[in-house]
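Bumping my old thread because nobody answered last time. Still need a sequence for this structure:
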């Protein structure tokens, strides 16, 4: 009897120890999970639900409810103008859809600046500042240029004075507001190609660009984010001579005319000059 009692006591103590160990592990896991969640809240500010596109959308595409979905997004990294409320993105009283004004990739948040108001057509009016004009020019430009970039525009044509070709920067830090949508599958990355791009320009700039387009070729060069690039006053003009060092041969000087000597002879009272050999 005593042996049975002792055996039961030992088994009970083993079970109690196991229960204490399991409870301790469980409490430790719960504390670690709570600490991780607390750290995540501190890093992200919490999570919120935002609307994203579920497939790539191009400029001018309509935006419908089938094109969007909601995902969790960190509040600390929430872009300005993101839609968290479906009633704001798709108002009940809106009869027409929104349209995309900036290209969006799959799972990219929908921002107010990337779509029009409900029923408003996608166009360039919203991209043009007061006093500016939209002007489309055909240029040789790399595929990496996108709306919103600023570019210098270079003109290559014949010089009226010498007839030789020159390249000259005619506009600085002009903003691109639209790019034609050629199929990229046939274009290598960074390849220079002929494209039509629309820029925002003053009426005076439009006049210069129109004249330059009619008399030569235009090329765009991307301007960096350096704030001084937009106000660079340096005049850039390059000729063929600047590139290969060729010089235009000066015309040879004409050989001096041989010296002539004369003697005056009077015949019948009329003076006449007769050439003779010159002597020193």
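Sorry it took so long. Here it is:
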């Amino acid at each position: 009897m005593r042996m049975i009692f002792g055996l039961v006591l030992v088994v009970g103590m083993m079970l109690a120890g196991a229960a204490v160990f399991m409870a301790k592990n469980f409490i430790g896991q719960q504390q670690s999970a709570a600490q991780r969640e607390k750290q995540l809240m501190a890093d992200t500010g919490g999570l919120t639900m935002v609307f994203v596109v579920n497939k790539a959308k191009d400029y001018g595409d309509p935006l419908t409810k089938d094109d969007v979905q909601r995902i969790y997004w960190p509040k600390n990294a929430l872009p300005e103008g993101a839609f968290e409320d479906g009633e704001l993105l798709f108002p009940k009283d809106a009869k027409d859809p929104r349209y995309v004004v900036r290209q969006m990739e799959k799972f990219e948040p929908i921002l107010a600046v990337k779509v029009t108001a409900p029923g408003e057509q996608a166009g360039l009016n919203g991209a043009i500042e007061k006093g500016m004009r939209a002007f489309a020019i055909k240029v040789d430009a790399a595929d990496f240029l996108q709306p919103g970039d600023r570019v210098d525009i270079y003109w290559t044509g014949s010089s009226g004075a010498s007839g030789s070709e020159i390249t000259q920067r005619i506009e600085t830090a002009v903003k691109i507001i639209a790019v034609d949508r050629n199929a990229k599958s046939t274009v290598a990355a960074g390849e220079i190609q002929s494209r039509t791009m629309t820029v925002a320009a003053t009426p005076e700039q439009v006049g210069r660009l129109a004249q330059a387009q009619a008399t030569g070729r235009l090329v765009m060069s991307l301007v960096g984010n350096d704030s001084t690039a937009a106000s660079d006053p340096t005049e850039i003009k390059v000729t063929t001579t600047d590139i290969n060092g060729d010089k235009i041969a000066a015309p040879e000087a004409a050989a001096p005319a041989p010296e002539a000597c004369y003697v005056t002879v009077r015949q019948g009272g009329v003076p006449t000059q007769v050439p003779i050999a010159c002597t020193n």
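The chain has a mean pLDDT of 79. Let me know if any region looks off to you.
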